[in-house]
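From the methods appendix. Each design record in this collection lists the tokenized structure first, followed by the designed amino acid sequence. Records were kept in a plain field format so they could be parsed without special tools. The example shown here is representative of the layout used throughout.

RECORD:
FOLD TOKENS (355 positions):
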């Protein structure tokens, strides 16, 4: 529309010219679209690339696991059957765990004992055939401390009147070549106090006899080792701890995938082991000893460590000469043990060695 010419424009030529807006047009309301009647046919299946279904958690887990920003944990499923290998050279192994009323085997008692017995192929370090399971509770004849009940979930009512079946325990241990526990220094004294036949079997410790740090593991705790494998479980019940330990033992080692911890422990159980006491170590070397892994024995007032073989002992003696004793004359105290005595309360053979 052209602006109207009037007197205002003549008197004030510098004022801007305003153009009136056109009157807006009103649109007619659109008619609603006619929708087709609902179909009774089922929805078509999603395309192959439509992604995992929420009803398939394993598919979702695999998708997440393939992404670099996620790690997936799966609940541990106990494995009770392994492929059989006819003609394999085998060792009979018992994986064991206990729950107790406390830490002192002289006064505390077992409230749960679990064992898994299997035969292990010495060529592969893997179980063969069926895994036998034992898991029973026992009344300790004393109240279970509240902190133990909270940790294990085992109450006084759970164990009331119950007793471990000695015949079944003896049957599982008959002919066994090796017992493995994740803290054999704790479990073995309790087991020997309850059943003397545990004294006549070789023991190995998956906590102390394995160098998990050298395998790149940040912790030696069983739960942490299982988590590294992507597994979680209800810990602090003896049977599930045994299943978790067997899973950890049979997994390939991170730094040595051709073998596993079970094969390593079997080999270590056949070697002599030594408790070495750095007798008369100079005070100023305490930090070196501690960094090396020595522990202070306050009762004997001496730094101590373990060597799992003759080769390891020789290397330790050379280190002591170079880093602790120097040129001074010195000798160290040794206690030699084998798997029949190791982790029990019984002593091994004592001697001294010059360094």
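DESIGN:
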């Amino acid at each position: 529309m052209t602006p109207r010419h009037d007197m205002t424009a003549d008197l004030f030529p510098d004022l801007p010219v305003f153009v009136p807006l056109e009157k807006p047009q009103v649109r007619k309301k659109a008619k609603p679209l006619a929708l087709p009647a609902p179909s009774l046919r089922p929805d078509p299946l999603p395309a192959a690339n439509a992604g995992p279904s929420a009803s398939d958690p394993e598919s979702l887990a695999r998708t997440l696991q393939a992404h670099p920003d996620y790690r997936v944990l799966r609940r541990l499923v106990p494995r009770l059957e392994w492929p059989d290998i006819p003609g394999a050279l085998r060792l009979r192994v018992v994986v064991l765990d206990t729950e107790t009323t406390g830490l002192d085997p002289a006064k505390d008692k077992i409230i749960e004992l679990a064992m898994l017995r299997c035969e292990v192929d010495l060529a592969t370090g893997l179980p063969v055939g069926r895994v036998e399971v034992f898991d029973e509770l026992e009344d300790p004849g004393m109240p279970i401390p509240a902190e133990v009940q909270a940790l294990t979930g085992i109450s006084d009512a759970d164990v009331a009147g119950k007793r471990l079946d000695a015949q079944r325990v003896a049957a599982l241990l008959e002919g066994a070549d090796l017992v493995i526990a994740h803290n054999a220094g704790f479990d073995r004294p309790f087991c020997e106090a309850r059943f003397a036949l545990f004294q006549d079997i070789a023991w190995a410790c998956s906590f102390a006899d394995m160098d998990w740090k050298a395998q790149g593991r940040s912790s030696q705790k069983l739960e942490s080792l299982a988590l590294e494998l992507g597994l979680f479980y209800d810990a602090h019940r003896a049977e599930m701890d045994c299943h978790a330990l067997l899973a950890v033992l049979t997994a390939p080692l991170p730094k040595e995938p051709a073998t596993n911890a079970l094969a390593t422990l079997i080999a270590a159980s056949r070697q002599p082991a030594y408790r070495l006491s750095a007798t008369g170590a100079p005070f100023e070397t305490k930090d070196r000893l501690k960094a090396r892994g020595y522990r202070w024995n306050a009762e004997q007032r001496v730094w101590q460590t373990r060597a799992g073989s003759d080769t390891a002992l020789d290397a330790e003696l050379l280190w002591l000469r170079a880093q602790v004793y120097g040129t001074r004359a010195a000798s160290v105290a040794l206690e030699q043990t084998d798997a029949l005595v190791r982790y029990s309360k019984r002593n091994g053979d004592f001697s001294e060695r010059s360094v």
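APPENDIX NOTE: The longest helix spans residues 310-325.
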